[in-house]
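Possible regression after last week's pipeline update?

I re-ran a chain I had predicted before the update to compare outputs. Posting the input and the new output here so someone can diff against the archived version. Not blocking, just want to make sure nothing changed silently.
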Amino acid sequence: MSESQPNPAQLPPTDAIEISTNHTFESWFEYPVRVQPHHTDYAGIVWHGTYITWMEEARVECLRSIGIEFADLVILGCDLPVVELSVRYHRSIGLGMPAIVKTRMNEVTGVRINWDYAIVSPDGQQLYVTAKVTLVALDRERGKIMRQLPTSFKNALAKIASIQNN
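New output (post-update):
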């Protein structure tokens, strides 16, 4: 193996990995959660798929906070399927523990919308999960990728970008 590529058996511990997005998590939408029994595996630790559910809930609530309802997107004939997902699990969360799902829209390129996530302890001292999700706008009727975002949706996303940049 070349020196530029680490040996997978010698990766650094997850708490040593830097987050490539925003280390302070300022100007992110925050969605609080608390681990319920149905979120966990048999050992009382959050099941890996639960984090993805929380991230989607946070994204939907972030959009709702600026006036975009998913039901309205359906009426416009637009769906936003996930086409790419990358998740890094840093530390587990146990039954009954609170956490904050932080999300922000990172970039809109044509009909691709990239989101960043960090799931942290309420005091921000523990990093549990980091993730990136890419969505594309899909024409629900034709089942094909749209050529451009609906104007009202594009304008609302611009509103998120301006909030995050302030």
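Follow-up from reviewer: compared with the archived run. The CA atoms of residues 79 and 138 lie 5 Å apart. Marking as no regression found.
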